[in-house]
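agent> fetching stored inputs for the pyridoxal-5'-phosphate docking request
agent> found them:
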Amino acid sequence: MTATAVQNKLAILGGEPGVTGDHSELFRWPIVTKEHEDAVLEVLRAGRMSGWDVTQKFEAEFAEYIGTDYALGSPNGTAALIEAMFGCKVGRGDEIIAPSMTFWSTALPAFNLGATPIFADIEPDSLCIDPKDIEHRITERTKAIIPVHYCGHPADMDPIMEIARRHGIKVIEDVSHAHGGLYKGRKVGTFGDVAAMSMMSGKSFAIGEAGMLCTNDQEIYERALSFGHYEQTSGKLTLPDLKPWAGLPVGAYKNRLNQLCSAMGRVQLKHYPGKIQEIQDALNYFWDELEGLPGIRAHRPAKDSGSSMAGWYAATGLYLPEELGGLPLSKFTGAMRAEGVSCSRGCNNPLHLHYVLNEADIYGDGKPTRLAFANRDVRQPAGSLPVTEALPERCFSIPWFKHDRRDEIDLYVAAFRKVLEQADQLL
Ligand SMILES: *Cc1c(COP(=O)(O)O)cnc(C)c1O
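agent> prediction call returned; pasting tokens
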């Protein structure tokens, strides 16, 4: 065999791997510099971890960045989501409509409020909630729709907002995957009535463990604040119904954000717009180079749409086995791993099929918690959300580049090309 033939032989069939050497800097996350360390140490040395002076500055700066009147920090995205649901008056017997293909925090906090999730299917290309699968699920009990900008891709907010407004229901955007992303030129998190998001260290806006709620709606803000905060509520609860709640967190949650994270967040925010631009440049280049190969498609909005992939959290590719002779996803990802590329199944497990959403009686109601306050059996069996259920075999993780280093990215491009051009040998 010639040298080129040896290089081209798939590593899983005994050839040389396509990507060798240490590329860990390309993926290291979060990026922590002396500037972050100094900011965190300042709070630590002052013993101000449990105050809220730094958090208030961070909230104001983050609100300005997203473009909302209010921002409310919390210890994690899960806390921000339940605050947002309570802010929208989700309560006993109510229903929220959410995708099943998401992290559990998008939907499961509804249980704490006596409400239940109703799951809608997703679009096969954006992987976000399908606006066409929402309206027929709305009942007189529906209080909110919760779209997720999944793996950085903006959900199709125009039709979602149109449906919600027509039915008088709220929209809570789960922005945990897409801080700073654009939908038709405007930042996600500013379309719905309220946005909630995670800022834990794996996310693209990564500050330790934290969450943030953003809204222009004073009542939603004050209700959210009253749910898990108590010390700072007296000056901030102004609406007549809510004022008497000051002093106690009515949800009995304690959602004060650790200020070490707020200090980290203020530094992250300064550098964030430049950072996500670099990530977008890197991943758009990666996908442009792979354009036209069979079996895979980019997970990103059309180039002229004004929409963007934010920090491209959990970067994902769409897998089309029918273009590769039916090659199972695991054989493709296994061949990629042999080439030295970290590559595996790339999505969550559908929530609607889990035992906890179907059978578990968590609070001893004598029936599944999903139905504890429901007026009908709202459970959704296997086969009810076909696009969601098929997705685990139709998407895969791609390298989440944090730096736009073309010479290194080219190695990964070549490895994907090598495997896809010889995929028939894996059958
Ligand atoms: C991570 C995540 C959350 C929850 O955030 P935490 O900070 O981990 O509590 C909520 N929704 C989605 C879609 C997420 O990925």
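agent> quick read of the result: The pocket of pyridoxal-5'-phosphate is lined by residues 76-78, 81, 102-103, 105-106, 148, 174, 176-177, 198, 200, 211 (CB under 6 Å).
agent> awaiting further instructions
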